[in-house]
Amino acid sequence: MATLAVQQIAVTGTAPTYGAASAGGDGANPQDRTCLHVKNGGGASINVTLLVPGSTYGQPNPDPVIAVPAAADRFIYLPPAAGDPSTGLVSWTYSAVTSVTVALLGV
């Protein structure tokens, strides 16, 4: 798992740097306005699963699954409240990583 750094979007424009998605998933220490940009350059749809720790009212918190179609991209909001209380990191996994690149963006 790689811990991605937030790339701040500037008023003057930002050219984000994308990296390969990690086979074991990735994580980040998000800010209030942080999103994950996932680009799927492959020929099949993939899923990105946010791993939300803890429980509410005795029930495990749900792990949202976001589909990223083939040759498409998605912006995924990463709320700080979804972070692990012990590390502050929000973590996620990918169903496949071939031809998948990611960038963590903040405003």
Specify the helix fraction band.
under 10%
Order of helices and strands: EEEEEEEEEEEE
The major sheet is characterized as: 5 strands, mixed
Low-pLDDT stretches are none
Based on secondary structure, the structural category is mainly beta
Strand order of the largest sheet: 1-4-11-6-9
Mean pLDDT: 95
Number of domains: 1
Query: Beta-sheet strand percentage?
Result: over 45%
Rg, rounded, reads: 14 Å
What's the helix count? Answer: 0
Number of strands: 12
Oligomer: single chain
Q: Separation of termini?
A: 24 Å
Explain what the structure shows.
With 107 residues, this protein is an all-beta fold. The chain starts with a strand and ends with a strand. The radius of gyration is 14 Å and the shape is globular. A hairpin with a 2-residue loop joins strand 7 and strand 8. The chain has strands at 2-4, 7-8, 19-20, 26-28, 34-40, 46-51, 55-56, 59-60, 65-68, 72-77, 90-94, 100-106. The strands form three sheets. A five-stranded mixed sheet has the order 1-4-11-6-9, with no helix packed on it. Strands 2, 3, 5, 10 and 12 form a five-stranded mixed sheet that branches. It contains no helices and twelve strands. The chain has one domain.
What attributes characterize this protein structure?
single chain; 107 residues; mainly beta; 5-stranded mixed beta sheet; 12 strands
